[in-house]
């Protein structure tokens, strides 16, 4: 016997040229990576917008503590007994009082969209300036009001960014609260300020050992801390007369007087303010800003230098930062100005986005709950209707049918698939279309020697082409299509073809089951198949708008397939494409729950992502391709009138919002009300468990898999959302994928082996 010579080794340094499929796969992978990244960045951006909005509302990082009753041993006596304006010239604490018969009218906690404009109207009407200590988060939310306030000639000061008691905060938090407020002022009005008033502060004798270091630090940085002499206590809403009385200083003394233009219902303040101004002017008082009061107390100053207004009506209204009334203002320039504008712009986006999302989520939530209710009602009706003792599609269908099995590199599964078909109780012919396999799939199919099996070889052209080839070679009028990794039960084909007794039926969707459900990923997909796919199909069947016949198990009239032009490769979801095409051609598509097929689901997260990405993107392509169904008339337009809106709403729009529901829930648990948010999440989970349990009951599945559903909602569902976002990004940016081959194990050998 002659021994053949060993094959010559490949030349050194030379590598095998990649095949056309490998090159296409490489291009697809290169396109997917940036799209996945973009999808993640979109979700991250929305999360950041929510966190920014929460920070503005003091839900993120909020601190409601207020210190009271602390000692003041470290605070100098002349500060405790001094005037309401505290400065640190040369590092030495100095207080300044408001001149006699002078009012420094101050307002805290604004700006507010309702009350601050009304306060400004009153001040302008009476030609009176005010000093507004603004909360940075409110400045960023209402920049137009701040701009008007400054242009009117009023003075502004810092009241922190989130209205926290700084005596409890770290030095870094104190710095952040001040700097962020300054950025907000720069973005809103193009200025910064040297005035500061601490939240919850009052007179200087209330300074304690915890707040004193804060004032010293800010004083060393050039800030002037402003306290009060007289408090209107308008926040208590004691009545207009009381507000006026409490705000009036005694015996002609000057005073820094506190009112509030935000932080609550301020109608009494608005009503009291004109009365107060008239009363104080009648007593001979003039009004000025904090800077005006300080200028009036300078040795070289005087009433004129103070720029006061009142009886003489000499109040300055210039917006220049050198004006005495606005001496604390400095023009923002450079990085401060642009960072401030960026902050205001980001807040504007958050202010618009979060409420819009909230409304959208409310609508989606109602729609999802409505869908669950509709699914339960229609699924029950479908089950009872199809399982009645007298129900029938017509005369039994007993004639032989063709089974088309497209296969590409299915050496692990093809033998099990064909052996399961050989046990069929219904007469069939089996057509295996080998789509250019390189692993010997065709040879394995031929070597089994099973009766009625024909193997057709073709160059690799994709699954739609393989299915079309099989349909052309089919001898019978009914064609069953299945995947090369799927296993049928003996009665599957018999059950699947019975609806064709109704001449209006053009296609039948079978009941696809996950065979490899022993793993965690497999169990999650098992829950999804039973609840999400099969329960949906019962609903769509009764509504006569079935969107998809699963590739794992479906049957078609050969006449109907040829009428719509066969299996198109225009989309990645050829099964959805042809199903919609059949609807538009006037054929009825139904669901046969008793025709079960056991398929091998993806065994890894990477394969699962690849499969669901193709499904999701392909569905979008099919919907776009058949968008004309919205205009179709008569029975053929039923899918456009009913099915298309349902699929878009529940398979595209709702899942897109679903990650935000989870983000909102997590956000609420951490920053708002953990107990309420948790109860809401558990309530939704309970509804989903109820639907899943009913779906399992209808399919006679074991309930133990439902124990994995809470974890599925936390982990698996998030991945499906990202897949959908990835698909939407691909749809918007363009892209095309080929028939993707998943790695198979051949684990699904028989239906019994599915567990």
Automatic annotation (TrEMBL):
PROSITE patterns in alphabetical order: NODB
TM annotation in the entry: 356-379, 646-672, 678-698, 719-739
Coiled-coil residue windows: none
InterPro entries noted in UniProt: Glyco_hydro/deAcase_b/a-brl, NODB_dom, Nucleotide-diphossugar_trans
NodB homology domain mapped to chain residues: 101-288
CDD domains the record matches: CESA_like (cd06423)
Entry keyword Glycosyltransferase: yes
Domain of life: Bacteria
Keywords, ordered alphabetically: Glycosyltransferase, Membrane, Transferase, Transmembrane, Transmembrane helix
Region feature Disordered, mapped onto this chain: 297-318
Gene3D superfamilies registered for this protein in UniProt: Glycoside hydrolase/deacetylase (3.20.20.370), Spore Coat Polysaccharide Biosynthesis Protein SpsA, Chain A (3.90.550.10)
Pfam families in the cross-refs: Glyco_tranf_2_3, Polysacc_deac_1
Family of the protein in this entry: Belongs to the glycosyltransferase 2 family.
Protein's name according to its UniProt entry: Bifunctional polysaccharide deacetylase/glycosyltransferase family 2 protein
Gene source species: Streptomyces plicatus
